[in-house]
Amino acid sequence: MTTALLEVTDLRVAYGKIEAVKGISFTVEDGSVTTLIGTNGAGKTTTLRTLSGLLKPTAGTVTFDGRPLAAIPAHKIVSLGLAHSPEGRHIFPRMTIEENLLLGAFLRRDTPGITEDIERAYTLFPILGERRKQAAGTLSGGEQQMLAMGRALMSRPKLLMLDEPSMGLSPIMMQKIMATIVDLKAAGTTILLVEQNAQAALSLSDRGYVMQTGAIVLTGTGQELLRDESVRKSYLGED
Amino acid sequence: MHTLPQQLANGLFLGSTYGLIAIGYTMVYGIVQLINFAHGEIFMTGGFGALTVYLMLPHGTSMWLALPLMLIGGALVAVLIALGAERFAYRPLRTAPRLAPLIAAIGLSLALQQAVHNLYPNATSPRVFPQIASGPWHVAGISFQSGDLFTLLAAPLCMVILAVFVQKSRTGRAMQATAQDPDTAQLMGIDTNRIIAIAFGVGALFAAVAAICYGLRYGQVSFDMGFEAGLRAFTAAVLGGIGNVYGAMLGGLVLGLTEAMATAYIANVPGLHQLGGQAWSSVWAFVLLILVLLLRPQGILGERVADRA
Asked: What is the four-CA torsion angle of B161, B162, B167, B172, rounded to 10 degrees?
């Protein structure tokens, strides 16, 4: 019997008068990979930014690890075990790779543990280790994505939220990122994934939710959604 | 007095003071993209804070004892006013259109000037600032006051402390992260409101040091001293590349040296003899600014805007 690590109920988020997320509910089971798919503007990124506190919901509740997140400011959420690798990577371009990783562990005080985790990030993504003293802005898109993931992992999160990790990447780099997600799951990290590449994302997901103009229109296991005719038509590019 | 070494020294003393004030403009701009036009007045209140401490000390207290206390007092006043301004004037406007906090800054600048003018005893005209009794000294054809010596020690010391703080400390790294990407900094667990307040505080601290340099050099503080000094320091910050703390100090030195050289030597150029002297110093300072904006708009150490996108 699994338990919900994250439980979202009737969440609404608006930018001024425009409602971007219109009352969605979903759960992320402990130890699972859960994916939100949907086209541009469906509200996926807005949802993740609300979960990590950067946006304030107009209604609804978010319960993470048994605690309501409503009143918690963004900078305190990571310490609860919720890490967010944002869309567009958002690495700190004028700091080195190592400094970026250290910032991922900003709230941790256990220096030996931090050093150990930095080495683990370098094992996971050897290119980051080779370039540790280089400014992060000089990395390629795929390398920046690795850095963003590595940085999010530095807080040792219970739940890792990845927003469009495959965006703009070469097919080889994308496979590498997807393989890393599988590895992370095997190591016990729960993952909430937002992807436009529905095929790749659903095939490694335990559960998927399809978002359309701010609402969840369909849910199922990754395999169920991959077989669903409307999903195949709208998101997998099949006729 | 118009020897070259003397003019270089004058430029250095002047420029160090500009640079110390410029750090406040540049740090705040680097983090919240706000030109804090009230920063000149924060500098001024630092001067009056230091003067107040001196006046409270028993008559005849040695300046060597008084100066550290004045520094603490001046810094305390400047930092508290800067933190108050950030908390109650700028923070509520953080998501407002950029013109709003800019206008708030100008309003605050005028309000602080008038408050000191009206409320501080006898501040309607300049008030005498205490001097260090020893000096002047003469070294290698340069004569300088004890106050200049203070500047010469304080400015590099402040700069080194700042560089170590920004590069090495945990808060310094958080500051860099906040400047580069405030939302993502929050995702790392950085309390960006706190970091912004610290930037205002550090800027005010350095402005208070500069105010003491100024008071010792000119022998007075006045309610409107922040206007001209602030404008020069802002020029220095732009000159060095706004957002870059090393640029602020460098810009201050370049500006100070340019002013000293121009006021001393431009009159020697045939046909320009009527353009020499102190009366023209502002003209040369802003001619330099215009040249930099035309030829290298990002400033001496600034990065191209495209890099920051």
From this structure: 120
